[in-house]
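Table S4 entry, Siroheme synthase.
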Amino acid sequence: MKGSIYNPRGSLVQRGSCLRRISQTPLVISFPDPDNAWWMSPTPSIRPMPTRLFPFFADLHGRTVLVVGGGSVARRKVDALLDTGARIVVGAPALDRELIALAAEGRIDTVIGNFTDAWLDDACLVIAATDDAVANRAIAAAASERRIFANVVDDAELSSIHLPARVERGPLQIAISSGGGAPMLARHIREQLETQFDESLGALAELLQRSRARIRERLPDLPARRRFFDRILKGPIPALLRRGDAISAERALQANLDAAPPSRGRVALVGAGPGDPGLLTLRALRLLNEADVILHDRLVSAEVLALARRDAELIEVGKRVGGDHAATQSGIHRLLVEQALAGKRVVRLKGGDPFVFGRGGEELEVLQSHGIDFEVAPGITAAIACGAYAGIPLTHREHAQSVRFVTAHTKDEDDGIDWRALAQDRQTLAFYMGVSGLERIRDRLIAHGRDARTPVALVENGTRAGQRVVVGTLAELPELANTHRVSAPAILFVGEVAALATRLHWFGAPPLHGLPLEALAQAA
């Protein structure tokens, strides 16, 4: 017997008995933050500005999913659910020919009539696919009262979940959602992705799925497994599967597994730039996504850290004003060595460039003395990036034929700076970490012959959303910083090109001023 008859509250039900588990469901359920759980309220209403949706893949095998609607829209939703192993119940006053055929095959159950709350009994998910806005709202309200996830087709405000556009390659699935706000955009992106991912990815996913237990047994250490998968995915196995040679691919996988080397750690010094994640190099981004551990400076931006692999361990090792920098640096050296000797891939993430006042050379010397492999991914140093974002060209045919990078901090905190050379004109000076020593910088430069009217610019939080630029003259430098409460991270530019920020700024708020604009314009 294909089904049985059941009648809740007078509705006709045809119940099929065919349930099959083919794969994990491709359905992505997205819901708002529980602290803003508008969807749990007894009556759905226009929700406030939505919080970020959380995607996950749901196993619906053996669970009841209710689809309300009997036309083509409902049929498309049913088609997406057929291979999930869910018990699909379709309810409507009438069903189209295709849905009737699916019911006759026992692949779906049907409820004939108008929606009632009883239809939600045992359901974990309901999809409202009718052309009646009043009915859809009633379905969403009933589901919300029972805390059942509901998707209302073409109505993001009533939906507590959203069904994404999908790219499928065997067990591998890529889901794209706009949160219900721009479904055509999600569909457009899906069409682009369809052309980028080869069908053989499905075979690759199945091969790795079959081999998972063997891989975990051979490589119980997680960092070692990550390195193994990196070699597999960049090696010949994907090409073998594209040619349809599954047997050779299986043999190659086993050969790689048998030859897997013991864990050996390494360290990458990576320049994070001054803050804007768009300034990271492709090499830096790849290393962040391969890292097991990331030792980062305090001032590395949250946006840059967000690009790291989700399960990487983040350890802040930044120095603080007034702290014991020597002891802190020794601790960094110890951590680098410990983590690398433990077989981990370590990224030492530094603001700007690791070889420009970043003590990267000292750290590499320590690694080299312990026989630890290392590499360096340069970053855009603060002077170049902050100058560009502030509209300050470091060299200029009329104003500056050279540029000097200077730090206010040296190894033993002594001076040792050639102030006479720095005081020469027609050059640009970029002072790193100099916010606390502005009075000394001004006095030394003027004492050695630099014109007190030389333009200066302080760039705070350069390249970031809160960037501020303060321009004035060398004579008023400390007062400029105090008046505008400039704080780290900030870089100081001294030279005629600094005045150009008043005319060439393009990012963030316009510069703040000390002297009137006319005086600065004359200086430039």
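Residues 1-49 have pLDDT under 50 and may be disordered.
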